Amino acid sequence: MPPRGAAAPPATRPDRFTLVATGDILAHDAVIRQAAADASGVPDRDAGPDPFAPENDGRYDFGPLLAGARAVTRGTDLAICHLETVVGEDDGPFTGYPLFKTPPHIARAIRGAGYDTCSTASNHAMDDGEEGVRRTLDALDRADVAHTGTARSPKDRDRPLLLRAGDARVAHLSYVHWTNKEVPPGKSFLVNELDPDRVVADARAARAAGADVVVASVHWGTEWQEAPDRQQRAVAERLTASRSDGRRDIDLILGTHAHVPQAYEKVNGTWVVYGMGDQVAGEMTDPRGQLGSAARFTFTAPRKAGAEWVVTSAEFIPHRMANDPLRLVNLARAAEAAAFDPEDAAALAAVRKAVLGRGADRDGLRMGR
């Protein structure tokens, strides 16, 4: 079966490429209200139109919310997002927590923010059943954003997603441990379940289809817990230990779901990001739910054909979602300002502490901007 794929912008040096990934895009009610307010030209989401009313006429602009991501995606060869929610019909109705249906306009904003591909396997993937899965993939297709983790058919599910980054072909895989609503019997293809044996099999199939680098996005862990839980550590150990012909099967693991920043760590010589936190989220009772990190890795080609591409640079870029209006703030860049907002300073310290909680700085992880 031929692989799926999309082209990324060419690398400045074909013997290396840079990948950046970010955490959960979670469109709470406040996020939908902000998108409606921004579309109307009234940034105050409480003074703008009611986004859940029929007379809103389908006007939503998520671009301003995500504009802060462009400084991170710009200049990279492959940018990966995690769209945690499914989208609704073009004219609604739309809902936030607990069963999400996001305006499909989010897909255009994701592309506008510079993303090439999104993982879509999450515990909310079945919030609107099979139709929600199909609508979401249709919206991403229309926006020219590749996707992996949910599928319309067994054939689509089994076809590996290969993306070009410089001279490398990068496979992007996506899995979730469980879903809030059950997957219909006989339709397991709709959402990729996190089964380590299946992940390894998919990685090997992607390698056979021509992948030079295999990236696995994994929706896992315990919500609101900064330390990786037992399941995360066990799965990370299993996946990073898997090798074929002396070559690792999976080259990078990107975690989501916990809604708080979690640690980065090298496991069996492979980088594991246990959790990137939330990229987009409404105001929560726990402010950590609006904190996250972007993960940026540079891979360099092997000198010998068929050998492993290796990570030669590893960075995290801390961010938070500011309120009133909701906007993504690059905390590393904010720290360079003459007047560093105390709330930003506290957020940066919290993200740094979580990210470095398992000693990743000793393996060369640095803060980027």
Write the layout of secondary structure elements.
Blueprint: E1 4-7, E2 16-25, H1 29-40, H2 63-66, H3 70-73, E3 78-83, H4 106-112, E4 117-119, H5 129-142, E5 146-148, H6 154-158, E6 161-165, E7 168-176, H7 196-208, E8 213-219, H8 230-241, E9 243-244, E10 247-248, E11 252-256, E12 264-267, E13 270-273, E14 278-280, E15 291-300, E16 310-322, E17 327-330, H9 331-334, H10 342-355, E18 366-367
Parallel strand pairs: 1-6, 2-3, 2-14, 3-4, 4-5, 7-8, 8-11, 11-13, 16-18
Antiparallel strand pairs: 2-15, 6-7, 9-10, 12-13, 15-16, 16-17
CATH class: Alpha Beta
How many domains? Answer: 1
If helices are DSSP runs of H or I spanning 4 or more residues, what is the number of helices? 10
Strand content: 25-35%
SS-derived structural category: alpha/beta
Instruction: Report how far the terminal alpha carbons are from each other.
Output: 40 Å
Shape: globular
Average the pLDDT over all residues and give the rounded result. Answer: 94
H/E topology pattern: EEHHHEHEHEHEEHEHEEEEEEEEEHHE
The biggest sheet, with number of strands, parallel, antiparallel or mixed sense and barrel status, is: 9 strands, mixed
CATH superfamily, by name, is Metallo-dependent phosphatases
Q: What is the CATH topology assignment?
A: Purple Acid Phosphatase, chain A, domain 2
